[in-house]
Amino acid sequence: MIVIGLLPLLWFFLSFSDLDAEQRICEPVPLESLDWEEFKWLYKQQDSTFSGDSVANYVFIRINPDGTHEAREVAELHRPWTELLAAEIDSFEIKRDSLIKRIHAPYRLRYTSTTRNKKQQLALQKRGFSKAFISFHNFGLAADGAIARKGKHLRHGAIYDQYGAKAKEIGLYWGGDFVGFPDPGHIQAFSNSANLIQKYPEVALEYEPFKTAYERNYFKKVDIGREELVEDSRDLLNELNKLRVNKPCACSSAIPFPSSAKDLTLKPYTITVLANLQENYIFIQKGSYGYFYSTGRWKLR
Question: Nearest-CA neighbor of 144 among 168, 176, 122?
Answer without folding.
Answer: 176
